[in-house]
Write the structure tokens for this entry.
Amino acid sequence: MKRTLLLATGLLASFGIGLLINPLISGHTATVPGQSGLGFYEQKDDPIKLGAFSLSLSVKDLETSRQFYENLGFRASGGGMEKNYLIMKNGNSIIGLFQGMFEGNMLTFNPGWDENKKNIDPFDDVREIQKHLKNNNIKLSMEADVTTTGPAYLMLNDPDGNVILIDQHR
């Protein structure tokens, strides 16, 4: 048993070291989509800028969840108990706690904002992001109105059914 554990630990360590060293030895710092091999993917020119990232959590009891996440070091930075939602931050980490607003949890991106809700420029408008997604044959469950400007949102699901909200506030 001890020998098997040592062997498994050695294999895992070798694999991890190989992942770190392989790009250096091969002279490549990135694995390009469509190429085989393991390595670190570094994309120099992002095709789209999604903005600030947060997890939007559907909670049963907002007060209980607030206390829990405060004990993890998060502090309220937006929303309000009377609004049935709180935006909580811990450093650059952001979670939204939403009671009774939607089912399930979502990955949320806010084009035009950084993690402190500060405007960033330039940014990709949600309608441009929508165009990019559609051009790449990604099905949207909700679309932004392309005849408008300013705040808008779109929604899609990843291959595993996780909901993604791209919500532009400006």
Observations:
- The chain has two domains: 1-45, 52-168.
- The chain is about 25% helix and 30% strand.
- The longest strand covers residues 52-59.
- Strands lie at 52-59, 75-80, 85-90, 93-99, 106-110, 140-142, 152-157, 163-168.
